[in-house]
Amino acid sequence: xxxxxxxxxxxxxxxxxxxxxxxxxxxxxxxxxxxxxxxxxxxxxxxxxxxxxxxxxxxxxxxxxxxxxxxxxxxxxxxxxxxxxxxxxxxxxxxxxxxxxxxxxxxxxxxxxxxxxxxxxxxxxxxxxxxxxxxxxxxxxxxxxxxxxxxx
Length: 152
Hints:
Blueprint: H1 11-24, E1 27-34, E2 38-48, E3 53-58, H2 62-69, E4 72-76, E5 82-94, H3 100-110, E6 121-135, E7 144-147, E8 150-151
Keywords: Oxidoreductase
Domain Pyridoxamine 5'-phosphate oxidase N-terminal: 23-134
Protein name: Pyridoxamine 5'-phosphate oxidase
């Protein structure tokens, strides 16, 4: 599809489409950085609870190490045409301390409960501060759909 065929969505439609994708998709690219080790990017499964994204990673992973040193993260849904980018601060929860509602919903969505594993896992909660969403060049203007944690 060429961009000349695209019709720019209005803000309410972009917001609705973004929320639908957050509720239904499985994977997100998580970008972190460590002051000494530099940037790191990894795909993780995620759960959207209506306010924040929940992910899970090994407690000793580069992602967990990085967010302990620098909690600011960038998240991207994996589609280079229907772009959704989120920015926020990651809040780590060791598996035994994760809120039961979030851990239960995560386990139901993926059929896997990290709390039952032998290894140590960390749940990561990111409440976005900024969300950008666009489809192609016609939607670059006005791509911000959340600012300062509030949907526009």
